[in-house]
Amino acid sequence: MVAVIGDIHGCYYTLIELYNKIIDKYPGIKVYTVGDLVDRGNNSYQVIEFIKKNNIQFTAGNHDYMFYHFFKEPTSIFAKSWVFNGNEMTLDSYDSNEASVFEHIEFIKEAPLYYNLSDCFISHAGISSKYKSMNVDLEENIYTLIDLIKSDYNNERGVLWTRDRLLNIGKIQVVGHTKHKDITYDEDSNAVYIDTGACVGNKLSAVVIENSQIITTFEVGTKLNDII
Question: DSSP string covering the chain, please?
Answer without folding.
Answer: -EEEE---TT-HHHHHHHHHHHHHHSTT-EEEE-S--SSSSS-HHHHHHHHHHTT-EE---HHHHHHHHHHH-TTSHHHHHHTTTTHHHHHHHTTT-GGGHHHHHHHHHTS-SEEE-SS-EEESS--BGGGGGGT--TTT-GGGHHHHHHHHTTSTTSTTT--SPBP--SS-EEE-SS--SS-EEETTTTEEE----GGGTSEEEEEEEETTEEEEEEEEEPPGGGT-
